[in-house]
Every structure is written in structure tokens, then in C-alpha cells.
Amino acid sequence: MNDITLGDVTITRIEEMHGPIMPADQFFPDLPEQAWQDHRETLVPDHLGADDAMVHVAMQTWLLRSGGRTILVDTGVGNDKPRPAVAAWDGLRLDYLGNLARAGVRPEDVDLVVNTHLHVDHVGWNTRLVDGVWVPTFPNATYLMPKADFEFWNPANNSDITGGVNENVFEDSVAPVHAAGQVQLWETSHTIDAHLRLEAAPGHTPGSSVVKLESGSDRALLAGDLMHTPLQVTHPDHSSCFCQDPAQARTTRRELLGWAADMSALVLPAHFSGHSALEVVMDTDSGFAIKKWGPFARY
């Protein structure tokens, strides 16, 4: 099952790819090896390799149908993109648009694209290469982007981008959409409709955000990069090596996991493999615990 309905909102998981990404001790430098060992039963094989200690993740989009609109939350790595810092993502040729079509959505059907932040693996399908030119993949969509990230990841403002994972990203996946007049920048919070609201969730990047869903009695948190592994539920004070402000990321993670626990909300991170989603509860020892996995079929 790749579709669920919460209140008046339907959520569909659209896969770009999934599998191992990098060693656990590099991805989370300050997370003790013993913590991975203590939680192997929970993590292996969906989130951690059985033999090689590689963290497993998914690149995926959350497709929302709400208020008569078709909404995409995050757009993966993308095809044909030059990514010198990440060889596995350089010049990809994947059937993402085919997966979207099999969910009943053509590019021209999309009304809204939400980039929770502007990292390389969240904006890739914002554009596609047509006759050597990067053009918006979704020609009729408004692209919601956090202003703080739009400014931070613009190479004109940030000389540290060259040589890093976000090299070329602004030029090929953000600027062309902005030039087409399809970008709407927002700050602090933004109401999408009666059921969906964007809220700033800084730390991972300056403009990182989440989408809160509240419809009828149902609640969900489309969590972006609040977490990259379920181990951060039980160890919420540990951030990934890609977090710009690890201390702020830790504070944000505790705050939002607390909201999810209080509201019995389904948490849908951008990169969880396996069942892709989960519910959390408060735990006196570590802060939080996994209550149960979400209803999506395992990858």
C-alpha cells in the first residue's frame, strides 16, 4: 500500500530510489556505535545494512491531494544533474516521472511543489533538461521555498557551496524555476489550505521546514530532514553531518517529536526507507520511542 487517507487529505508515496547511502559513523559522527548495535533489531535491514554498517535511506516525494489540488512535498535528486560531490547522484537516469504517472499524476497536473529545504536531494525534480536547458518540470505549479534557504544556498551569497553536496544545485534546480516566475518565498509559516500548514524548522539548514497536517481527527507531520534514521527517535540529541546548526537541529527535533507524540501524529520523514513513516510516544529514558510503523508497504 502506497496510499493513505488522513481526514480529507490523501497521501501517496512516490519513490525515486532507496538503498545504502553512507557509513553510519560518517553520517552521524557523534552517535556511539553501541547505539546502532543496541537497536539493530529495529534498524536492520530497512535502515541499516546487516553486515556493512551502511545507513539505508529513501529518496521519495510525498504526493498530497488536498482541497482539490495536487501537491508534491520534496522532489528528490533529479535526472541529468551534475553532482561532482556525490558520484552516485551524478547524471542519474531514473523513472521518477513514470512512478508519478502510475500514481495518476502528469507534470502539468501538479498545482503546488513544496521544497521543505533546498538541499540537493529535495529539489532535483524541480527542473528537467530539455534541449540543453533546465526548465520547470511542473509548468503549472507554484513552488513554495523557504526564503532563508533561498538566500543561504545562492552561490552569490555563499562561497562555501563549491565542492560541497549542493554545488550546481541552485543554478540547475532553483534559479530556473525562479526565473520562470513560479517561486513563492515564505518565512516563519505559511498556510497551504485548511488542512496543511508549513512551519519553519531550522537547524538542518537555515530555512528547513515541515508540513503539519490537521484534518478532522487526524494529524501528521511531513518532517523533511528532521531525522534521517529512526535511531534519532530514541537518540534525538544527535544530528547528521549535514546539519548546518546541530544544536538548533536538536532543539527543533525535540520540539516537533513532542508535538507528534502529543497529537498521535503520523511522522513522515523525507528519507525513511522500510515503511517510510511511524508514530512516536514519549519515553522517560531517551525522550521518545517508536510506537508503531506507518501503514505503507515496505520497500
Alpha-carbon Rg, integer: 18 Å
* Order of adjacent strands in the largest pleated sheet: 1-2-3-4-5-8-9
Care to count the β-strands? 16
Structural class: alpha/beta
Mean pLDDT: 97
**How many helical stretches?**
8
Beta fraction of the residues? 25-35%
Report the sheet with the most strands, covering strand number, pairing sense and barrel closure: 7 strands, mixed
Shape descriptor:
globular
Order of helices and strands: EEHHHEEHEEEEHHEEEEEHHEEE
Give the low-pLDDT segments. none
Alpha-carbon distance between the two ends: 10 Å
- The helix fraction, in percent, is 10-25%
Q: If you had to describe this structure to a student in words, what would you say it looks like?
A:
It is a single chain. This protein is of the alpha/beta class. The chain has helices spanning 24-27, 33-38, 40-43, 96-102, 147-152, 169-179, 231-234, 246-263, and strands at residues 3-6, 9-23, 54-66, 69-73, 112-114, 127-130, 133-136, 142-146, 183-186, 189-191, 196-200, 209-215, 218-224, 266-269, 278-283, 287-293. The longest helix is centred in the C-terminal third of the chain and has 18 residues, at 246-263. The model has no long low-confidence stretch (mean pLDDT 97).
